[in-house]
Write a structure and sequence with these properties.
Keywords: Signal. This protein has one domain: Invasion associated locus B (IalB) protein (Immunoglobulin-like). It has 3 helices and 10 strands; from the N terminus they run αββββββββαββα. It is an alpha+beta fold. Strand 4 and strand 5 form a beta hairpin.
Length: 174
């Protein structure tokens, strides 16, 4: 049995988001203006001037990009992971499982091309589960198990401090 099907049988109720669909254009930052707010533990916090909100972003040693922020209406969080090597189309949805140091969650990922940097593709999930958001801040490794592509790991070192700085940044945006 493949890993995805095994995980589907194991995970019981660890949903990242129970929300209805959000228009793709309102999830990730657009092509607007971004200013750097600060840097902490390898993460850069940016102000999305158009949305009046902040996001965190880190590029790892393999040039993969991890980005977290708020949707345009500021009601949901998003988590995006992008790579230069991923060969993904835009708009397709795929069920994924996320392991945060042994705590399992499942979500629907939307595949897309990254808006900020050309040449990247990947996907994002929406999050309204407070425990998932807390685990992102407190855990050290995120392992993602897509249904169709190979699993991959993301180092979460410094995420807690970056999220705190982004919260301060968001408070200043009004």
């Amino acid at each position: 049995m493949n890993t995805f099907k095994t995980l589907a049988m194991i995970v019981a109720g660890g949903f990242v988001s129970a929300t209805s669909a959000v228009a793709g254009g309102s999830v990730l930052p657009g092509d607007g203006s971004f200013t750097q707010y600060g840097v902490v533990d390898g993460w850069t916090v940016y102000v999305d001037v158009e949305r009046e909100s902040c996001l965190i972003e880190r590029v790892d040693a393999s040039a993969n990009v991890v980005q977290m922020g708020l949707t345009a209406d500021h009601k949901l969080g998003y988590l995006g992971v992008f790579s230069k090597t991923a060969e993904l189309g835009s708009g397709n949805k795929e069920k994924i499982f996320i392991d945060l140091d042994g705590t399992m969650y499942n979500a629907k990922a939307t595949k897309m091309k990254k808006n900020i940097t050309e040449g990247y593709s990947g996907g994002y999930i929406l999050a309204d589960n407070p425990q998932f958001i807390e685990d992102l801040a407190q855990k050290y490794t995120m392992t993602v198990f897509p249904e169709k592509e190979a699993s991959f790991q993301v180092d979460l070192a410094g995420t807690h401090k970056a999220m705190e700085l982004a919260r301060n940044c968001n408070a200043e945006q009004g």
